[in-house]
Design brief:
Layout lengths: L3 H10 L3 E4 L9 H14 L6 H4 L7 H9 L6 H18 L9 H10 L3 E5 L4 H10 L8 E3 L12 H10 L6 E5 L2 H9 L3 E5 L14 E3 L2 H6 L1 H5 L4
Parallel strand pairs: 1-2, 1-4, 2-3, 4-5, 5-6
């Protein structure tokens, strides 16, 4: 139940929804995804360059597979690649991943202010629960929008439009937290203010266009009111 002070604060401020990416933002997983893609491709005799794949993490498979490997996601080979990558990631890498600094604490503070946290990720719905479990925030997330809810993945804004519709809020009533240029671009195209974090491995130059850039969720937490435009 929301405290009256929180309800009044959010009414005055206009902020209702915080949309969060998972990979690289709440979970240290970008490199693991890239390594899983590299290994899956090599097993199938597809030329793979980890250094080319890593900067594409954050896009959905609909964009990453054609750009990294030159094959269509919906082709027979593309489907086999995606399936094997998912298997390798879940079996070899996911059990060893952990949250980014301050991920759980930031989510708890978001909720304590009466704001709604909602995940928007390029991952498939069947994988989201396990990702959130490894990030130790599953119990703090109200809902998740996934690749299944969008026609096109980030940097297209489809998934953010779906998040706004799901929450019943306008773009100016939401803030996004993400770690890649694709999060920043998608948020800007959806007219949503974006807070970027460096813990996904991207430079400040690459994250240009974000409203503000922080080291990680812990850094956002230490500047919470300023970051979210709250009084105090």
């Amino acid at each position: 139940m929301l405290r009256n002070a929180d309800c009044q604060l959010n009414h005055v401020n206009g902020l209702k929804l915080v949309i969060l990416d998972i990979d690289g933002t709440l979970l240290r997983s970008n490199a693991a995804h890239a390594m899983a893609f590299t290994e899956a491709a090599q097993r199938q005799g597809i030329a793979a360059d980890y250094s080319r794949i890593l900067p594409l993490i954050g896009k959905g498979a609909d964009k990453l597979i054609p750009e990294a490997f030159g094959i269509e996601e919906n082709s027979s080979l593309g489907k086999k690649l995606a399936q094997l990558k998912g298997k390798i990631f879940k079996e070899r890498f996911l059990p060893h991943l952990g949250p980014t600094p301050g991920a759980r604490e930031l989510l708890k503070e978001i909720r304590s202010k009466g704001l709604t946290p909602l995940v928007a990720t390029s991952s498939d719905r069947e994988d989201v629960d396990r990702l959130l479990e490894r990030a130790k925030v599953k119990d703090l997330i109200d809902d998740a929008m996934t690749a299944d809810d969008a026609d096109a993945s980030k940097p297209d804004p489809d998934i953010l439009h779906a998040a706004l519709e799901k929450a019943g809020v306008r773009p100016e009533e939401a803030v996004m937290v993400g770690d890649t240029p694709y999060d920043v671009e998608a948020a800007n195209r959806a007219a949503i203010r974006c807070l970027a974090v460096r813990c996904g491995g991207w430079s400040d130059k690459s994250l240009r266009g974000a409203a503000a850039i922080y080291d990680d969720p812990a850094d956002i937490l230490s500047h919470f009111n300023q970051a979210f435009g709250l009084p105090g």
